[in-house]
Amino acid sequence: PKAFARRARSYRGLLQARRPQDCCSKRAADRSTAPTTWGHEGSAAHKTSSETPPRIKRGATMEVDEATIVTASTKRGASEDPQDAAKRLRTDDADAMDEAAARTRAEMTPAEREEAERLHRTAVRAEALAAAQAAAKERGVALSAAEVAALKKEQEAKPKFVSKKERERLALERLEAKRREREQKLRSGPKFSAPLPRKEPSIKKAIDDYAVLREKKPVAKKDTDKERELAQIRENYLGKKGKKKQPKPSEKFARVFQFDWDANDDTSQDLNPLYARRHAIQPMLGRGYLAGLDMREQRRAHTFSQALNDKRASEARAQEEAEGLARAERKKREAQRKKERDALTQALAAEEKKVEATALGKKLLHWTEKPLQEMNARDWRIMKEDFDIRIRGGKAPPPLRFWNEMAVPEGIHKAIQDAKYRDPSPIQRQAIPVGLELRDLIGVAETGSGKTAAFAVPLLAYVAQLPAQRIASLAEDGPLAVVLAPTRELAQQINDEIAKLSTYLSCKTTTIVGGRSIEDQGFLLREGVEIIVGTPGRINDCLESQYLVLNQANYVVLDEADRMIDMGFEPQVHTILEAMGGLLMSEDEMLLEQQRAALSRGEACYRITAMFSATMPPGVEKLAKKFLRHPAIVCIGDEDSGKNKRIRQHVLFISEQQKKQTLIDLLRRKQPSEKYLVFCNEKRGCDALKKVVENAQIRCGVLHGGKTQDQREAALENYKRGTFRIFIATDVAGRGLDIPDVAHVVNY
C-alpha cells in the first residue's frame, strides 16, 4: 500500500482536478492524524519533534477523530473549537485544490483522465488498507475476516516483479499444459469424425444475389473543377479519342482480302505446249556460245556434243559385239576412237583460247586478270563493290589495284616490298591515288584498316618531289609536313611507320610529344626535319615557346580526328592550323585544278589537308568545313558507327560486385597464345584492377596517363613482344595502336 501511495503522489494534480472535495477532506484527515505534536502558538519550541510532517496520504480514513481536531486547534489557540479547526482546514485545502484543478483540467486528455481515475481508485483502496492496518496495530486488535480477505485480494492484485528466466519458465509450463490438454482431448474423443453435411447452394438465392448486384449502381467519382480542367488540357493537346465500334466476331474478318483462287480462274489448261517446253539452243552442236553470257557456264550446261560422241561410241561398240568381231580387233578400234576424241577435245580448247583472246573474251575477264590499260568503267565499279568503297566530293581517280601500279619514287616501292605488304587495304586503294593528286582528303574507315600507310605514302611522295631550296630552309622556316595524333603512343607508332617507308629516302622525321624534355625536342627542330609527328598539346607548346615555326608546312594530316575532338584538343588544332604558312585552296573546282598543278611544280604554296577518322561526328565536320577545300570523301564500310564487321560482340549484364570475379574467370579460360586487352575508365581503376589480376596469379601490364613516358613505352613494347598477354589500359590505348594477335578486348 505504501508503494501505491508513493506512485499516486505523482498524479496529485490529476486527482485534484478530478475530485477536489474528496482530496481536500482526505488531506485534512491526514493532517489531523499526523504523528507530529504541535505546541502552543508563540512558544519557544514550535515543534516538539525534529521530523517534518509527513506528506498527505491519499485514501486514508475519511473521518476525523476528536483528538486530532483538538491537537490541530491548539496551534491557533486554546479558545478555538476543534470542529471549527477541522472546518477551517478543509476550507483552505479546498481552495488550493480548486486552483490546481483549474490549472490542469485544460491540459488533460481523455486517456489521461481515465488513467488518473484508475490510479485514484487503486490508491484509495491501498491507503484505506494501510490506515486500517495501522489502526489495528495501535489498538492491538486483530483484523476481521472480511478485512483479511480484502487485504489478500489487494496483495494479489498488486504487480509482482518476475525475472526473465522465471517468465521463460512460466511460458514453457503454459505451453506444456496446453499440449497435454490437446493430447487428452485427442485420446478421449472419437477416432473418426463424420464430415459435416454440406449445404447445397440454392439456385433461387443465387438469382436473388445477381439481381441485387445489378440493381446496385456504381458510385460516381466526384468530378472536381481541377480534374475537368486537366481533362480539357489533355483533350486539347492529345486530341479527342473517338469511341471505336466493337465489331461482331462474325464480321471481324469479312472485309479481309482472301488470297484464294476460284476453280474457274485456272488457266493451265489453255497453256500453249510450245511455251511449256522451250527448246534449248545448241549453237554449233554444243561447241558455240551465246552472246555476252558466261562461256564457262555455257560449256557446263550445253553438253550436246559430248553426249552425241558418247552415244555414237556406244552404238559402234554394240554393233561390233553383234558382228562378233575378235577381241583384239575391238581394242584396236577403241584406241582409234579415243585418239579421235582427244584430237577433237584439243581442237575445242584451242578454239576457246582463240575466242577468249578476242574483244568479247577480254570483257569477260576479272579485273585482277586484266592489264591496267584495258580496265573499263564496269571493272572499276565491280572493284569498288568488292571492297565496299564509296567516294564523293567531285571527280576522283580510280582505286589502286596493286602496289606496283602507283606512281611514287622507287625507294617507296622497295620499302613496301621490305615490309612485306601483300595487297593494299580498301582505304589504301582509294586514299593513296587521291593523295597523290594533292587533293584534300577525308578518309573514314574502321580502326585497324591501314590508315597510317594510306596517308604516309602520299606524304613521302610529296616531300620527295619538292625542290632543293625548300629542303635547305628547314632550320629557318620549319618542317614541310605535320602529322597530328591524339596520344603519344599513336604518334610514336606513326613516326615508326613513316621511318620504315622512308628507309630509301633522305627524309628525317621526329616526334613532338609530352613526357619528354621540350628543350631536347627544340634542339632537334633547330637542326631541321622534313616531317614532325606529335600531339596537339606539345606542338602548341613549342609554337608558343618559339621552338617551332610552320612557315613552309603545307601538308598536314589529322589522324583519328574524332578522338582528338573528343579529348578536347579542338582549340589546339585550330591554333596549329592557323599558324601554318600555306594558303587555302579555292572553292572553285576549275581554279582548284590550276592551283594543284602549280603546287606539283613547286611554284606556289597551297596547303594540303588530309583527315582520317573512324567516325564523322559534328565536331569533325565543322573542322573540315573550315580548313578543307573541296575534299574527296572516301568511306569504307559503315561510316556512321565505324564498327568492324569482323568482330563479334558479347555483352554480360552483371552487378558491380560480380565484375572482378567474372573477369578473373574469363582470363583463366584463355589459351596460352591469346592476348587480352582490358579497358578501364580511370587511372585508379587500372591500378586497382591490376592488383586484383596479379593477386589471382596472372601476369599483366598497365598503361594510362599517370605513368611516365618511359614506363608507357616499356609496357606497350612488352605487350607487343608477348612478355605478358594481359594488358590493362585507359582510352589512351583505344585508337590506332598496332598490336598484333589481340584475340579479346574487354570493356571493363
From TrEMBL:
Residues 1-10 have a biased composition (Basic residues). A motif (Q motif) lies at residues 401-429. It comes from the Eukaryota. Residues 401-429 form the DEAD-box RNA helicase Q domain. This is RNA helicase. Gene3D superfamilies: P-loop containing nucleotide triphosphate hydrolases (3.40.50.300). It catalyses: ATP + H2O = ADP + phosphate + H(+). It comes from Pelagomonas calceolata. It is an enzyme of class 3 (hydrolase). CDD domains: DEADc_DDX23 (cd17945), SF2_C_DEAD (cd18787). Belongs to the DEAD box helicase family. DDX23/PRP28 subfamily. Keywords: ATP-binding, Helicase, Hydrolase, mRNA processing, mRNA splicing, Nucleotide-binding. One of its GO terms (molecular function) is hydrolase activity. Residues 432-634 form the Helicase ATP-binding domain. InterPro entries: DEAD/DEAH_box_helicase_dom, Helicase_ATP-bd, Helicase_C-like, P-loop_NTPase, PRP28/DDX23-like_helical, RNA-helicase_DEAD-box_CS, RNA_helicase_DEAD_Q_motif. Its EC number is 3.6.4.13. GO terms for biological process: mRNA processing; RNA splicing. Residues 646-748 form the Helicase C-terminal domain. Residues 19-30, 84-93, 100-120, 173-186, 309-343 have a biased composition (Basic and acidic residues). Residues 1-120, 173-200, 306-344 are annotated as: Disordered.
